[in-house]
Design goal:
Elements: E1 3-14, E2 18-21, H1 22-26, H2 33-40, E3 44-47, H3 54-69, E4 78-82, H4 93-101, E5 107-111, H5 117-131, E6 136-144, H6 154-157, E7 162-174, E8 182-190, E9 198-200, E10 213-215, H7 217-238, E11 248-251, H8 256-266, H9 277-280, H10 287-297, E12 306-313, E13 317-324
Parallel strand pairs: 4-5, 4-6, 11-12
Antiparallel strand pairs: 1-7, 2-3, 6-7, 8-13, 9-10, 12-13
């Protein structure tokens, strides 16, 4: 049986020029490099420059992904940008990206699932490709989380950073089994009853202001390890696979202890886990595509490898995906 698959043909990323280290944060907050590293695994993060917008980061990542794919912007049918920090309330930042990169033939829109955003965007684009509504899709995760942080709250502001990552999907025929290249499956969940664990205390309809990120860290941690392990098992079982079949585990880069706990629960060795949180911090929807960019750039992830991704974010939302590179 022949099926239509969404195959990853290019990967790109972008990080702002400014690096903010733990030591620099310790000069302005009641914290230390040791305190931050022990609780999160983070040593530094990148911060967007004044006037540098989420769409600017997204465009830079998109261009590197298109270059890697050898695809011109006019060949793109669909742009999906996952972000919780859009340039404006509307229009969608994806339409700004469309204009700036010259993808004039593409439909473009944003999706918002916080740190799970890239998994949601990938699932959305994959379904457009599978249905025949798009042949080439640009999927981007981009964030300027530094703009919604309370820089006096040491429990949250030390955890996040800015950045963008992107992949290019292209329709190709497969045989309908786990040996196919491309997105094998995606699995999405949400539970709005857990809203208060991770949210921003503002918005156009509530306060009329952007607001700041608020988080119950211990509760998020507790839910994260369980839900992310469960949703990755769901992806493996849906494809008749086990953890031993996975070449690379690329989790959302929220916290090194969460990453280690999830990998251990799944039985995946640490040498098969892509970790970038130490350098990038938590870049929300950008974290998975940035990690993919790093791991393809250093040739860890190669064509034919089976890649497992997963994330959990505010909402709460969580999801996973299996991709044969």
């Amino acid at each position: 049986m022949t099926v239509r698959r969404s195959v990853v043909v290019g990967c790109g990323g972008y990080l702002p020029e400014k690096v903010l280290t733990n030591e620099e944060l310790a000069q302005r907050l009641d914290t230390s490099d040791e305190w931050i590293r022990e609780r999160s695994g983070i040593t530094q993060r990148y911060i967007a420059a004044e006037g540098e917008l989420t769409s600017d980061l997204a465009c830079a990542a998109a261009r590197t992904a298109l270059d890697a794919a050898g695809i011109t912007p006019d060949a793109v049918d669909l742009i999906v940008v996952a972000t919780s920090t859009p340039d404006e309330t509307f229009p969608a930042s994806a339409t700004v990206v469309q204009s700036k990169v010259g993808a004039d033939n593409a439909m473009a829109f944003d999706v918002q699932a916080v740190c799970s955003g890239f998994v949601y965007a990938l699932a959305t684009a994959d379904n457009f490709v599978k249905s025949g509504q798009a042949g080439t899709a640009l999927v981007i995760g981009a964030e300027t989380f530094s703009r919604i942080l309370d820089w006096q709250d040491r429990g949250t502001c030390v955890l996040f950073g800015d950045g963008a990552g992107a992949i290019v999907l292209k329709a190709e025929d497969g045989q309908g089994n786990a040996t196919d290249r491309g997105v094998l499956s995606t699995h999405l969940h949400s539970d709005g009853r857990l809203h208060d664990l991770l949210y921003v205390d503002g918005g156009p309809s509530s306060t009329g202001e952007v607001g700041f990120l608020r988080m119950e860290g211990k509760e998020v941690f507790r839910h994260a390890v369980v839900k992310m392990a469960d949703v990755t098992v769901e992806a493996l079982e849906a494809n008749g696979l086990t953890a031993s079949d996975i070449d690379w585990f690329v989790p959302h880069q929220a916290n090194k202890r969460i990453i280690d706990g999830t990998a251990k629960k799944l039985g995946i060795n640490g040498d098969r886990v892509v970790v970038t949180i130490d350098r990038h911090a938590n870049t929300s929807a950008a974290s998975i595509p940035l990690a993919l960019w790093v791991a393809t750039g250093d040739a860890r992830i190669k064509q034919g490898d089976l890649v497992l991704i997963e994330a959990l974010g505010g909402g709460m939302t969580w999801g996973s995906g299996l991709v044969r590179w």
